[in-house]
Amino acid sequence: MTSQPRIPIDHAALAALCRRWHIAELSLFGSVLRDDFGPDSDVDVLIRFEPGRTPGWEIVDLGDELSALFGGRRVDIVNPRYLDKRLRERVLGSAVVQYEGSHAA
Length: 105
What we know:
- With 105 residues, this protein is α+β, with helices and mostly antiparallel strands.
- The protein is 30% helix and 22% strand.
- The chain has one domain: Beta Polymerase, domain 2 (2-Layer Sandwich).
């Protein structure tokens, strides 16, 4: 059974954002997929970028755009390559893909 996000998502707008930012795959994980998601909860986003397209400080702008798309909620962006080894299996196992581009592996 797949958990559904507890926030409305404009998937067309999300896909456009992902293409513009060269995102290969964007998934949600954490409380946004659980019943304990509340009005003050942030949105945890797992992002894999297309090869050679990982942004530098511009990632702050990406976070702002995602926040606007997710109703103004704070967004935590995580690159799966840098997940703590102790959390990796649990996070990847619970993540729900919201966008998968042509460069997704």
